[in-house]
Amino acid sequence: MQRSDFHYLLPEHLIAQMPLARRDASRMLTVDGASGDWRDARFAELPDYLRPGDLLVINDTRVIPARLHGLKASGGRVEVLIERVLDARTALAHVRASKSPKPGARLYLEEVLEVEVAGREGELFRLCFPPERTVTEWLEAHGHVPLPPYIQRPDQAEDRERYQTLFARVPGAVAAPTAGLHFDAAMLERLAGAGVETARVTLHVGAGTFQPVRVDDLNAHRMHAEYVEVGEAAVARIEATRARGGRVLAVGTTVVRSLEAAAADGALRPFAGETRLFITPGYEFRVVDLLLTNFHLPESTLLMLVCAFAGCEPVMQAYRHAVEAEYRFFSYGDAMLLSRAGLALEHFKR
């Protein structure tokens, strides 16, 4: 398939710049993977689409305040976005400057922090932080929430809490698994009370998630790498769900990639390591039955994954409707609930 197959027109005013007052107040567009039909709904209706014995799988990654601003020794402005913390003193980062810094150069960040450029690994720079604190401690004290590039405002105090899921616990992401942002404590309690169980996986979302596909032929695209961990507990809960006839609902494309990476050889097994799994139409899903996700950028790898899951034409039609109905798009936007192609999305009014 071609990149252009996943293009749609999006008015800029539909890109959500701020979160809603309530996490659970978003709209939810549903897509039936069997019929291709879509329906306008609310996220508050999510329990009405689930049955006792279904399994909710969440991503427990935690967004770190990974963005730092400052100056080079020459006085030129520089912006640092940490991609991955390697150990207590070093991290790999994207560095934006008028001229790339060389090994040995020093960056003066947030007026209090001096880091050394220790080398380069591809597009990333290896940075060495002062020994008085760990990298994570420096970031927590002085870093900014790494809001996506389409949110055209500086981060604010409320973003520290709202650009984080309630179940975030493993630091390492530089972008939120945004489907999880809709859940509040009351929704989690409702689902538990309805007999829906929960499992956790970890995928540390990298800045590469916002990188555009630059080739027309998707076969030529090389997916960015992200760290995934699917533990024994998650595998056991999925197996138990299958045994009792329940369905697996992935909260976000990150969970889909985590579970499908762990089942890459055909059987779901515990997995820890990097994945470059690129899911496009024609992919055979092995684990996930239902998907809750936000709306994704035109021609993005995430939109391609959603099209692979529920069918390209139904998804693109649903997107066109979402634009006409003025849904809110992207990280702080509204949600979609989809069933896998060929699987009906049933509505059980409670």
Automatic annotation (TrEMBL):
PANTHER family from the UniProt entry: S-ADENOSYLMETHIONINE:TRNA RIBOSYLTRANSFERASE-ISOMERASE
Gene Ontology BP annotations: tRNA queuosine(34) biosynthetic process
The UniProt record lists the keyword Coiled coil: no
Native organism: Thiohalobacter thiocyanaticus
Record's keyword annotation contains S-adenosyl-L-methionine: yes
GO molecular function, one term: S-adenosylmethionine:tRNA ribosyltransferase-isomerase activity
Protein name: S-adenosylmethionine:tRNA ribosyltransferase-isomerase
Function: Transfers and isomerizes the ribose moiety from AdoMet to the 7-aminomethyl group of 7-deazaguanine (preQ1-tRNA) to give epoxyqueuosine (oQ-tRNA).
Family note: Belongs to the QueA family.
A matching Pfam family: Queuosine_synth
Enzymatic reactions: 7-aminomethyl-7-carbaguanosine(34) in tRNA + S-adenosyl-L-methionine = epoxyqueuosine(34) in tRNA + adenine + L-methionine + 2 H(+)
Pathway: tRNA modification; tRNA-queuosine biosynthesis
Protein localization: Cytoplasm
Quaternary structure and interacting proteins, as annotated: Monomer.
EC numbers, comma separated: 2.4.99.17
Keywords of this entry: Cytoplasm, Glycosyltransferase, Isomerase, Queuosine biosynthesis, S-adenosyl-L-methionine, Transferase
Chief place where the protein resides: cytoplasm
InterPro entries hit by this protein: QueA, QueA_dom1, QueA_dom2, QueA_sf
A GO term from the CC aspect: cytoplasm
